[in-house]
Amino acid sequence: MRYDWTVDEIEGLFALPFNDLMFRAQQTHRAHFDANEVQLSTLLSIKTGGCPEDCKYCPQSARYNTEVESELLMAKDEVMKAARIAREKGASRFCMGAAWREPKGRAFELVLDMIREVKAMDMETCATLGMLTAEQAARLKDAGLNYYNHNLDTDPEYYKEIITTRTYEDRLDTLKHVRAEGMSICCGGIVGMGESRRHRAGLVAQLARMNPHPESVPINMLVKVEGTPMAEDEQFADDMDHFEFIRTIAISRITMPGSHVRLSAGRETMNEEMQALCFLAGANSIFYGEKLLTTDNKDAENDQNLFERLGIRPEEKPVPSSRRMVNA
Ligand code: SAM
Ligand code: DTB
Ligand code: SF4
Fold first, then answer.
1. Is 46 exposed, middle or buried (CB count within 10 Å of its CB: 0-12, 13-18, 19+)?
2. Which of 83, 140, 286, 306 has its CA at a distance of 20 to 30 angstroms from the CA of residue 124?
3. Strands (DSSP E) along 116-221, which ranges?
4. Which of 187, 206, 180 is nearest to 195 (CA)?
């Protein structure tokens, strides 16, 4: 495994002829994974809107006038009901998202309780709650959290165009705390925010230089939501070429061979051929279920149909080593 990728090298991968890049991505993919399996994660927004941060892409920031209303933290039974439905539909992981800068007080205690209960349902647990202290990471680990999602979002240089209320370093610190507790990391970014190819290479380099690599790498295609600067400002007006998105997936696969690369936000506007090319480029995880956090996603039946046509199987949840011994 390599952890020393340079931005120049990654830019070199971006410059390859498309077919050569796809061939390399498939070779890497097949050396590490069953090429016909895709992992399914279902998202639930447990605390929607009213966020104090200024992320220019985000419909949940209180600073922008979007259709998203600020809501209170969801009740535990509602969360459990959503988790049960996700499991019945075949998701192996349940990811709870909160529109917070960081978790605090009683709300954090309530989320720990939700994590304990989802864990007890025999699903993998994931949470995305903003910045964490070392102590908070330890408490999440104790509650049984398997994955923490915290994205780098973009290249360190381009970052200041997108978010001013927290630094790139803050993000790296949170990831450090998660890793120190031995939890798995889900960390990726967004493509299509008006960044250059060099910036996309810079984002992938940041991810691929982490040792170990994040276990899950969500590659989001920007969902342009009315009222956010990404949808309103001239600076971000250009739409990105879809092939550039597929290239970003392929390069994430090549540089992080053992990670699950997730074809994340943006699928709602992708046709089936586009999604199939993303799987061919090495994407082996999706967000599954009709909603992401606040925006629409393909519904489960639609994905089941696509999987059947492509001969793709949902990946089973890994059996913990303790239970494997009992069953042997
Ligand atoms: N508030 C927490 C935080 O930002 O750390 C967790 C939730 S936040 C919505 C999780 C991630 O969703 C962001 O880091 C960003 O990568 C992604 N995201 C948010 N809005 C998006 C959009 N419009 N299009 C694509 N990805 C988006
Ligand atoms: C990630 O990388 N993408 C997800 C998840 N992690 C939390 C969120 C996508 C959000 C898209 C906009 C919305 O639905 O609000
Ligand atoms: Fe808040 Fe997260 Fe949205 Fe940023 S991405 S505004 S931190 S909910």
1. buried
2. 306
3. 124-128, 147-149, 184-186, 189-191, 216-221
4. 206
Could you read off the pLDDT of 131-181 as tens digits, one per residue? 999 999 999 999 999 999 999 999 999 999 999 999 999 999 999 999 999
Would you call 278 a catalytic residue per the annotation? no
Taking Cα atoms as reference points, which of 263, 229, 271, 231 lies closest to residue 245? 263
Q: Which residue(s) pair with 287 in the sheet?
A: 41
Q: Rounded to whole angstroms, how far apart are CA atoms 79 and 96?
A: 9
Residue 140 has a pLDDT of 98
The sign of the dihedral angle between the CA atoms of 279, 285, 288, 291 is negative
Q: Please, which residues bridge with residue 68 across strands?
A: none
Report the length, in residues, of the chain.
328
Number of Cβ within a 10 Å radius of residue 105: 7
Residue 209 tokens, joined = 């230089």
Which contiguous run of DSSP H or E holds residue 189?
A: strand 189-191
The answer, yes or no, to whether residue 92 has pLDDT greater than 70, is yes
Nearest to 204 by CA among 11, 37, 58, 68: 11
Burial of residue 138, with CB atoms counted within 10 A of its CB: 0-12 exposed, 13-18 middle, 19 or more buried? middle
Residue 51 annotated as catalytic: yes
Catalytic residue among 87, 95, 139, 267: 95
Question: Which of 220, 240, 270, 291 maximizes ligand 1 atoms within 8 Å of its Cβ, making it the mutation to test the pocket?
Answer: 220
How far, in Å, is the centroid of ligand 1 from the Cα of 265?
9
